[in-house]
Design a protein that fits this description.
The chain has 486 residues and is mostly beta strands. Helices cover 15% and strands 42% of the residues. The two termini are 32 Å apart. It binds calcium ion (CA) (2 copies). One calcium ion binds next to loops.
Length: 486
């Protein structure tokens, strides 16, 4: 396989060289312009729909802010006590609660034993008219069965949103670290880690981020922060962890591309048993979105300081380019449930080498990362991204069996490829998905058997009788091939 050039540079000719390698035809620019046209028409459609809904809904009530909607109409006694305690602090009966938009804790009242004394404290984010625009953090504790405010701290200036709150062991002294992601009015985000001591929240670390991962990456027993910040042509990754000086940034590395969106960050084990971040993100090539995987770990230097390690791209390897794939939201996962994370790569099915469309079925392969080797395929198959199932291909199918999607009914037909996608005379399998509301063709019902159900959808398959050595059985289909992705 050729080296994808575009990673070194996003310049035009090299980007096309990549595309031509990824899709082994001369038609990369055709792919791109095709996608651009589709995107433009989609945007126009969305714009028209929005215009219609605005016209239609012109008289309806304007939706109030989400905080207003989330204010609990009926408070539990505990919540009422907390509200009253806050009112005493703020001097204001009208409190507007704020809550984290992401992460594990998304409630106005966050309960956690912050000082590790065996009793939970309550953490509340709020604004009150008498205290201006600022957002405040209040920590309340129970004293003689009553909730009492024990700590009141302003959020950073110009805080517009709380991204997340997380309770971690960032330091080895047993203290709980409260990590809060703050988003300001310009949507830029800052993570601040606090220790709660003597009724005060003391910041121990602060750094801007676009995406953050919280994990014990170097296996030292304390939790590390990994912060991602995209630049114009690259993305910076910072590692912060406990040192003899406290909790601080100890290392950084550069990913050679600007990341448009961080789609999935998974912490998991590599084949060597060490912990790593499996990052799936969207990047742009010639205004076309692709997804790509990076795998980042940390290893201790001789002096004990951890250093970030790019497990896909380093002095020995250059593998992340081979994970570039159409943006279909297929992410790293433990596909075979062996406790190790696999990395998806995508290639064309037989017959599609010259057909460029985002809607064609691809062969997706989940690979294990072996130390200092190539990606090692573990499972391959076709993924129906709309209905979120995978049809795992038996080894004998790979390179021999292709698939077509019937536009009239969405049926996926799998057949022995004889050199022409129109020739489905040796069909091995047909899969259809019906919603509960769909009309089922009675004639088809004689052949198709229900193989799965998910929500309102029913999945039917027809295994055709065949003399081909590529034929499968119903048992093979349901036992080894067909499964839901999530
Ligand atoms: Ca406590
Ligand atoms: Ca696995």
């Amino acid at each position: 396989m050729k080296v994808y050039l575009f990673l070194q540079s996003m310049e035009g000719g090299e980007a096309l060289a990549f595309l031509d390698t990824f899709l082994p035809t001369q038609s990369a620019s055709r792919w791109v312009s095709h996608r651009a046209c589709r995107l433009a028409s989609r945007l126009l459609t969305i714009g028209a729909a929005m215009m219609l809904s605005l016209l239609a809904g012109g008289c309806s009530r304007v939706q109030t802010s989400i905080e207003d909607l989330m204010s609990p109409p009926v408070l539990t006694e505990e919540q009422a006590q907390i509200r009253d305690a806050l009112a005493r602090v703020s001097g204001d009966g009208e409190i507007k609660y704020r809550y984290p938009q992401n992460g594990e804790y998304r409630s106005s009242y966050i309960f956690y034993d912050i000082d590790a004394d065996g009793v939970e404290e309550a953490m509340v984010f709020y604004q009150s008219a008498s205290k201006g625009e600022a957002t405040w953090i209040n920590i309340l504790d129970q004293q003689n069965g009553e909730w009492v405010s024990v700590c009141e701290t302003p959020a950073p200036d110009s805080t517009a949103n709380i991204d997340f709150v997380s309770f971690e062991q960032l330091t080895g002294d047993g203290e709980i670290s409260i990590v809060i992601g703050w988003e300001d009015l310009r949507s830029s985000k800052t993570a601040i880690a606090y220790h709660y001591q003597s009724g005060r929240l003391l910041p121990i670390f602060e750094r801007e981020y676009t995406e953050i991962a919280i994990a014990d990456l170097d296996g030292s027993g304390t939790t590390d922060l990994v912060l991602f910040t995209p630049q114009a042509q690259s993305t910076l990754v910072f590692l912060a962890c406990e040192t003899e000086n406290g909790f601080e940034t100890v290392d950084s590395l550069t990913l050679p591309r600007s990341i448009l969106s961080f789609d999935s960050v998974l912490t998991g084990a590599t084949s060597t048993g060490s912990s790593a971040l499996f990052l799936d993100s969207t990047v742009e090539v010639y205004e076309t979105a692709f997804q790509v995987t990076d795998v980042i770990s940390a290893q201790a230097e001789e002096d004990g300081t951890p250093k970030l390690v790019n497990l896909l791209d380093n002095e020995l390897l250059s593998l992340s380019e081979s994970t570039l794939r159409p943006a279909q939201n297929i992410y790293c996962r433990d596909i075979d449930s062996d406790g190790l994370i696999e990395i998806p790569t995508v290639s064309t099915l037989p017959g599609y080498e010259d057909l460029l469309s985002e809607d064609i079925p691809f062969l997706t392969t989940y690979n294990q990362l072996l130390p200092n080797e190539q990606l090692s395929p573990k499972q391959s198959g076709v993924i129906n991204t709309q209905h979120r199932y995978m049809l795992r291909f038996p080894q004998r199918w790979i390179g021999q069996v292709s698939a077509v999607v019937q536009p009239e009914n969405g049926e996926w037909t799998f057949f022995v490829y004889n050199g022409d996608l129109q020739d489905t005379s040796q069909t091995l399998l047909r899969i259809r998905v019906y919603s509960a509301k769909d009309y089922h063709d009675k004639f088809d019902g004689d052949y198709f058997q229900l193989i799965g159900q998910k929500g309102l959808f029913e999945y039917y398959a027809y295994v055709l009788p065949s003399q081909s050595e590529l034929a499968i059985t119903q048992q093979e289909l349901t036992g080894e091939m067909f499964f839901f992705l999530d």
